[in-house]
Amino acid sequence: MTAVAAPPRTDVVALARELAPAFAERATAHDRDATFPHENLAELVAGGYTAMTVPAEYGGPAVSLADLCAAQQILAGACASTAFAVNMHVHGLAMIARVGGESAGRACRAVLDGAVIAGGFSEPGVGGNWWHPTTRADEVDGGFVLNGRKGFFTGYPGATHLFLSAAVTDDRGLPEPVAFLIPKPQRGVRVTAEWDAAGMRATGSHSLALEDLYVDSRWAVGERGALPMLFMLGVHWAWCSFASCFVGIARAALDHVVETQRRRVISVIGKPNAQLPGIQFRIAEMAAKVAAAEAHLDAAIHAEHEDVDPLTHYVDMSVMKTSVTKLAHEVVTLGMQVQGGSGLASGDPLQRMYRDVVAGLLVPPATDVVLEWSGKQALGVPIFAEPRWEG
Ligand SMILES: Cc1cc2nc3c(=O)[nH]c(=O)nc-3n(C[C@H](O)[C@H](O)[C@H](O)COP(=O)(O)OP(=O)(O)OC[C@H]3O[C@@H](n4cnc5c(N)ncnc54)[C@H](O)[C@@H]3O)c2cc1C
């Protein structure tokens, strides 16, 4: 385990505020060296943060989605990589818990004991189309043998458990996606590339090869073929948590730029940059976009999540994530214009935020797929009709 977990806390927003200053201080070095923030994760486990989505029936604090998102925004403002890595864990567990049954009980007990989950659904061969895994799960006595590749496995260096997908072959010879939650294995998983990217550099989003990885059948999460439904019904946990990371970066960028421009005096102007109309207009635009992003996220957090049509629910949450991350990217881009050349210097955290926030446009769900589904839904065109571009 990463660390011994403390009794779960319900005040995760206060906990995030306590931990954020130290995370912010360590962020520069982890970003520079592309090192995984193990000490941050250990503090999150020790403080009970990682247990926040354990439901009450399993002895957890059952923190609300609103508090999860508020806490994640605070962490993201300090160290977006840490927030993004622990996001995989908190929302992943919420989705597993929602499925219920033995796998949920096992996962929750492990997390209360300090376990940390990383999730791997995208693959080099399918990109973000992760309802169609090319990783194969061949049935053997008592379980499955998995072979395939996983890209972008965020949080892998700090994980004790892996939540991943593979396809079994059904009676008709067709692939059925299955999710598994497995203790991080000693054998059968090889890191093929360590994460070294332009943004989210401290997330340890390694690429993996699964090579004859034995998986016990009791580690399956939900029924065979149930993976798409598992995602659709629990998607508010995922996309609200994802969106929070990028809203958190945008809010931190705005605060940082405001603070800098109030202090900065250029001799030609002779007074603080804050007096310049161009600075004022862009700050106003940034603030409006942050408010729009926060409002859209808030509406998604407080929308109906239980009595829903699964597909409509999935599309609504996906549209929110798409629009919020686009706004967040625009906010930080405007911030760079306000800050000027010094914003690009390695000593200014804004350049890290600029590189981190772009990940929001790339992480799931794939923007074009969301726009297609949402547009088709609005126009009354069946989403899954084939061929795809004709009615
Ligand atoms: C920092 C970071 C961390 C990540 N962490 C994780 C993780 O922990 N676990 C995980 O599973 N994944 C993770 N991902 C991967 C992410 O989930 C996406 O799957 C991945 O970025 C998309 O794959 P790709 O970039 O190869 O793009 P592709 O999926 O190949 O997409 C490339 C382009 O094609 C478009 N496109 C793709 N498919 C379609 C389609 N069907 N219809 C129309 N247009 C399409 C996309 O919109 C995009 O513009 C992470 C990504 C990033 C950037």
From TrEMBL:
A GO molecular-function annotation: acyl-CoA dehydrogenase activity
The keyword Flavoprotein is annotated on this UniProt entry: yes
The keyword Methyltransferase is assigned to this record: no
InterPro entries: Acyl-CoA_DH_C, Acyl-CoA_Oxase/DH_mid-dom, Acyl-CoA_Oxase/DH_mid-dom_sf, AcylCo_DH-like_C, AcylCoA_DH/ox_N, AcylCoA_DH/ox_N_sf, AcylCoA_DH/oxidase_NM_dom_sf
Entries under Gene3D superfamilies matching the protein: Acyl-CoA dehydrogenase/oxidase, N-terminal domain, Butyryl-CoA Dehydrogenase, subunit A, domain 2, Butyryl-CoA Dehydrogenase, subunit A, domain 3
Residue ranges of every copy of the Acyl-CoA dehydrogenase C-terminal domain listed in the record: 242-359
Domain of life: Bacteria
Domain Acyl-CoA dehydrogenase/oxidase N-terminal, residue spans: 20-102
Keywords carried by this UniProt record: Flavoprotein, Oxidoreductase
Span of domain Acyl-CoA oxidase/dehydrogenase middle: 120-212
Membrane-spanning residues: none
SUPFAM superfamilies attached to this UniProt entry: Acyl-CoA dehydrogenase C-terminal domain-like (SSF47203), Acyl-CoA dehydrogenase NM domain-like (SSF56645)
UniProt xrefs under PANTHER family: ACYL-COA DEHYDROGENASE (PTHR43884), ACYL-COA DEHYDROGENASE YDBM-RELATED (PTHR43884:SF25)
Record-given protein name: Acyl CoA dehydrogenase
Species: Couchioplanes caeruleus subsp. caeruleus
Upper taxonomic lineage: Bacteria, Bacillati, Actinomycetota, Actinomycetes, Micromonosporales
